[in-house]
Design brief:
homodimer; mainly alpha
Chain lengths: 240, 240
DNA sequence: GCTCAATTATGACTGTACTCAGTATTGGGA
DNA sequence: TCCCAATACTGAGTACAGTCATAATTGAGC
C-alpha cells in the first residue's frame, strides 16, 4: 500500500503557531474530510460512499463537507489533487536533457499511468470530469495541474526541437498538445482493461506516439515514381 | 429476449399489423418517452429536467421510464442514439474515393461536429460517458456506434494507404485509431468554447491532423532527396 | 476579562433518482 | 368464449445529495 497521503510539503494539519485558531481549525477540518473521503471512496467505491458517512468519519456536520467541496464529485478532486500535483512535479523532475523526445514523453506519461493505475475506479471518475468539469472549488485546481502537465509535454517537445531531434513547422506547444491528446485517449483505453499492466499500457502508448513522430508522409521518391494505382472501379461508397 | 430497439430499421410508432398488441404498445411507449425526454432535456437542460416530468409528459408511470432506460444518464443516450447513428451513416456516405486522406477525415469529423454542436450541453454530458460508460441499456448502443465511427476512420486510412497517398509501417486500423484520438480531444476542447463556430473548430482539428500526417521525423534521407515541390498536397481546405 | 460583529459549523429539511411489491394487460390454449 | 400464466406497468416508498436558517465560535477593541 503506497502512501496514500501526500508529501507533508503543503497543508500540514495543525502546527505553525503563527496561525490563528480559526485558521488552524479550518485546515484541520479540511484535512480530516480529505482523509475520510479517501478511505471511504477507496473501500466502498464512489457511489456507495455516502457524504453523510464521510462527514461522520471526519467528525463534522454534513453541511460542513459542502463548505470545503462544492459537491460530491468535487470531493474526488479534493482527495486526488495533492497526489496529482506531486505526480506532475516528479514527472517534471524526471525529464532528462540528454534523452530522446520519445523517451522523455514516455517517462512523463509513465508517472501518470502509475498515478491513475493506483486507484482505477476513482481515476475513471476523475478523468470523466477532466474533460468537462463544472468548476467546483477543487476541480479548478485539478484542471490547473492538467495545464501544467500539458506545458511540460510542450517543454519536452521544445527541447527536442531545439536540439534537432525532431523537426516541424509547428511550434512546440502545439506539438505537445497533440501528443497530450494521444496520451489522454490511450490512458482512458488502458484504464478500461482488466489487469492494468503498466508496461503493456505504456507499450501501446509508445506505439501511438511513435506513429505520431514518424508521420504518414509518403517518402517523396515514392510519390514521384508511382503512378497512382487507380482502382476506383468498384467499391465506390460515395453517393450523391 | 428481443431487443427493445433493434427490431425494425427505424422505429415508427404503431403500424405493422404483424406485431402483437403487446409489442406495439412497447414500441409506442418507448417512442413517447424518447420524445418527452428530448423535449425536456433541450428546453430545461439535463439537471433541471426531472424524470417524473418526463414520465408525466410521456403518459407513463415513473417506474416505466426505468424499464426502458437504466438510469437518467441512459435516457440521454436513448434520445441521441438514433441521431448519432444517422450522423455516422451520413459520414460514411460522404467519404469520396477521389479525395485526399485529410479531406475525407475532415468530412467525416465535420458531420460529427455538426451533430454535437447542435445540443452542446447534452453533448458534453454524452461525451463524458463516451469514455467510461457503465453499460446501461442505451449506452451500449452508443458505444457500438462509436466503434463504427472508428472503423470508418480506419477505412479512410486504408484507402489512402492503398492509393499511396500516405505511407506507414502501421496498419490502417491503428492509424485510424490515433486520428480518432486527436478528433476526440479536439472535439472536447471545441465544445468548451463559447460561440461553437464549426469552421473554427474544424480548422483547429485540421491543424492537428495535418501535424499528425506530416510527423516530426527529421527526415534523414528524405531531406536529402526532397528537391521536388510537393505539388500533390496543394488541395488546401475544403468548401469551409 | 467582556462584548459583539464576523466568520464558520450545523443538521433538520427539501427535492431528487431510482426500487419493488403489487396490479393490470395480453395472448395462447381449452 | 373464458381462463390464467407470462409479461408489462405502476406509484408509494427509500435513500441520497445538497441547502439554508440558525447556532456556535472566534478575535479585535475595550
Amino acid at each position: 500500500m503506497p502512501a496514500l497521503t501526500t508529501k507533508r510539503s503543503s497543508l500540514r494539519p495543525t502546527d505553525d503557531a503563527s496561525l490563528g485558531l480559526r485558521e488552524k481549525n479550518k485546515i484541520d477540518k479540511l484535512h480530516r474530510i480529505k482523509i475520510a473521503a479517501r478511505e471511504l471512496f477507496v473501500t466502498k467505491g464512489f457511489d456507495d460512499a455516502t457524504t453523510r458517512e464521510i462527514a461522520l468519519r471526519a467528525g463534522v456536520g454534513i453541511g460542513t463537507v459542502f463548505i470545503y467541496a462544492d459537491n460530491k464529485r468535487d470531493l474526488l478532486f479534493l482527495v486526488a489533487n495533492d497526489e496529482l500535483a506531486e505526480t506532475t512535479s516528479k514527472a517534471e523532475a524526471a525529464v532528462r536533457e540528454d534523452e530522446t523526445c520519445l523517451q522523455n514523453l514516455l517517462t512523463v506519461f509513465r508517472h501518470h499511468y502509475e498515478f491513475f493505475g493506483r486507484q482505477p475506479e476513482l481515476s475513471r471518475l476523475m478523468l470523466r470530469e477532466m474533460a468537462f468539469y463544472d468548476s467546483g472549488r477543487q476541480a479548478d485546481r485539478f484542471q490547473a495541474t492538467r495545464e501544467r502537465a500539458i506545458k511540460l509535454v510542450g517543454a519536452v517537445m521544445k527541447r527536442a526541437l531545439d536540439r534537432g531531434m525532431i523537426r516541424s513547422s509547428e511550434d512546440s506547444g502545439f506539438i505537445g498538445w497533440v501528443a497530450f491528446c494521444i496520451f489522454q485517449v490511450e490512458l482512458r483505453r488502458w484504464l478500461m482493461t482488466k489487469d492494468l499492466d503498466i508496461d503493456q499500457g505504456i507499450a501501446a502508448l509508445q506505439r501511438s506516439l511513435q506513429l505520431f513522430i514518424q508521420g504518414l508522409a509518403p517518402a517523396k521518391e515514392c510519390l514521384v515514381v508511382s503512378k497512382r494505382p487507380r482502382q476506383s472501379a468498384g467499391r465506390g461508397r460515395a453517393k450523391a
